[in-house]
Each structure stands twice: as structure tokens, then as C-alpha cells.
Amino acid sequence: MTDDITRSVSRRAMLKGSTALAAGAAFGGAGSLVDWARAWAAESPFQPEKGASIRMLRWNRFVETEDIQFDKNIAAFTEATGVKVRLDKEFLDDIQPKAAVAANVGAGPDIIWGPMAIPHLIPDKLLDVTDVADYLGGKYGGWYESPAAYGIRDGRWMAIPLCVSGNYINYRVSQVQKAGFETFPTTTGDLMKLTKALKANGTPAGMALGRATGDGNAWCHWVVWAHGGKLVDKDGNVVINSPETAAALEYVKELYENWIPGTASWNDSNNNKAFLSGDVSYTNNGISIYAAAVRQKMEMAADIDHAFYPIGPVGRPTELQLPFMIEAFKYSKYPNACKTLLAFLMEAPQYDAWLEQSVGYFTQTLKSYESNKVWSEDPKRAVFKEACTRTLDMGYAGPLGYAAAGALADFVIVDMVSQAATGQTTVKEAMETAQKRAERYYRV
């Protein structure tokens, strides 16, 4: 859901697609991924430079099967095109700083796959990939509007939204039911009742209140937006110091009092560990918790389910989902090879295979892939299919750009929520600090 926000984006690139191929195509007569890749490379409109070799940086996996399939796809690309790809992997929270360093020094990875803020932090350093985006959008049914907006600046594509990592509520069915709820609550009022009941039952909950790039940003933005708070208005004026934000922070203070201790230091992996060890009965995360439980044949797997974020006083979904953008640097010696790889990674059938092996951790950003069987073979994945259509974007309710990316990367919202929740500052002080910090990015 894009609410009432309008974006200056290339609708032609996002919406065209009458010639789209059906997603879900099998390898068929090609016989193997490599055979198909060779056929694709021979006919692709993107052709690498002779002798090209590129370095790609991506974030460490949260779902093992996804990572394995990604490696297979990269190997098939090299086999088919002759382009050697050095694939480096780092912890998620380290990708953004490394991208900034590479942009500043003009050297490092040719391609980076990482968090959504990166393209808008370094737009002038990135290779124009409008031709890749138009090609893919035309072939596969068009792009979803929200993730596409993260890749566009001044009418040109500076990055490709490879996928969205859906971030929703992960919960233990039996513990929620024991606390008096047949299913996970759909309103913030009932979420508070559930949270208190869970604590009373000795099965508390908890969500990351540390500087967690994915999980912390996702739920902290949701809860502020759910109460009507927002960092900026439609004109980009900072308005976070407001009665609506104060209501959100008072709400979080009460939640935090009923959570398991220690969430103020959690990063993007702590909540996974806490849930799988049985320490918490709900948290927010991608589907990686459930995927790990299934893979490890844990008894807990049958007791795990997922839910949308509850609706707050504003009366509509206020989610912040997490596009993962893939971008190439202008300094690359092999820009054509970079474009070839970006296009390859989203071509059927290898993209279908990758989606399937991500078991719901990634949501497609091209509409033709909605029919992938990953969404129908397990009903516990269903909510994640909606990640691209329910989300607001990181700039809400103002424009996307450097200011929005900078405030997100600097954890302005997360720090405000954490400071108020833990009592490090008063609600008023937390909002005033956030207002001042945000104004450094949104200079008038």
C-alpha cells in the first residue's frame, strides 16, 4: 500500500509488461541451470566485456537454502558468460558502511546487494541501470511501485530491487492461545493485552530495540506510524515531535515493561536466537526463524505461525518492509558485465528457483513471479507474499532521497523509540532529540 504518497518514478518502467513471460517456468529441455544459462547468455541483450571479472558483496545468509541456490546461480552465470565473479559475504549491518567507503574511495566491490537506503545515500556513484530495469519490467509484468521507488532518482534507475525481505510477526501459536487469543491480535490495543498476558504466563515477548538494520527499523517505524506519528510531512518538514509520536512512545514504554529483559541491545540476529531457544513467544522477523526450525526438524516448527503487524489508531496498515537493492558502481571497469549479471539474477527460471529456495524469506518485486509455488505450498508463508503491496516506504510521508536514507541509516527513529522505551530519556526528550537529528538531514 502506498497510501496518499506520490512518487516521481518511471511508471513506464514499472507498469509496462504486456509481453511478460509466465513466472514459474521449468528448466524444461535445457536440462540444467547451466544449460539454460548458456542459452540465455547467447541471446541476452546484455553482453559483458571480453575478459571481464567482477567482485560482488552481499550480506550473510539468514536462510541456508537461499544462499546455496544463490551460489549456484552465480556459478551458472560464470559458466555461461565466462565472467569470473568473486562473491564476498558480510554481516548485514556491515554492508551499508562498506558501501559508503567504496563510494568515497572509488574502489572496492563492483556490485553490492544490501539494505534499501544505500542507493539514495550514494546515487551519484552508481551505474545507470535504466536499460536493465526497463528490460526486466517489460518481460516480467512490471515492477511493484514501492520497491521500484527505492531504485529511481530523477527518472533514472540507479539500482534494481532484487527482492523484498518481508518482516512480520513470528509467534508461538500455543502460547498465544494460552494467553487467551485464538489468533494473533489484529489491533495494537489487543497486542498490549496479549503482551501482558504472555508475561503473566511466564512466556514473554520481545523485539529488537538495538540498532538492527532490518528488524529494529521495521517495527519501530510501524509503531510510530500506527499511532499517526511520522518523521516528516509531505513537504519534507520534520514533524516527529508531535502528540501522535508521544502516544506511540508511551505505548512502547508499556510494551517494553512486559517484554523479556535485554531487547535494548538486540541486533538482527538476537531475536532469532531468543525465539528458537524458547525465550520469547513473539518477535518480528523474516521467515528465517520458521525456516530454521523446519530445516532442523525442531518440534517447535509446528507451533510457529506468522501475522501482519496489528493496525493502530490510524486504522490502516503502516508497515515498513525491507527492499534489498542491488547496485553497481560507476567506477567498475566492467559496467556491461555488471548489467549482464543484474539482468541474469532476475530471469526465469533461475529467479523462480531462488524464490523457492528462500522459502518465503524473499518476496518478488516483479509481478509475474506472484505465481511462484513458494506462496502456495505452505500457508504459514502467506503473509510474506503481501510485503510489496502493504508497505509504506522509508521516506513516509515525504519524498524519498538522501535525507530519508540518511535518517534511516542513522537510526533516528529506532534510537528515539529505544530511548523512550528504556527510560534513558523522557518521551519529550526523545522526540526533541529525534527532531534535531532529523533536521540535520532535512535542511530547509
From TrEMBL:
The keyword Magnesium is assigned to this record: no
Protein name according to UniProt: ABC transporter substrate-binding protein
Transmembrane segments: none
Domain of life: Bacteria
Similarity comment text for this entry: Belongs to the bacterial solute-binding protein 1 family.
Cell compartments where the protein resides: Periplasm
Predominant cellular place of this UniProt entry's protein: periplasm
Keywords: Signal, Transport
Organism (species): Thalassobaculum fulvum
Cross-referenced Pfam families: SBP_bac_8
Keyword Transferase set for record: no
Gene Ontology CC entries for this record: periplasmic space
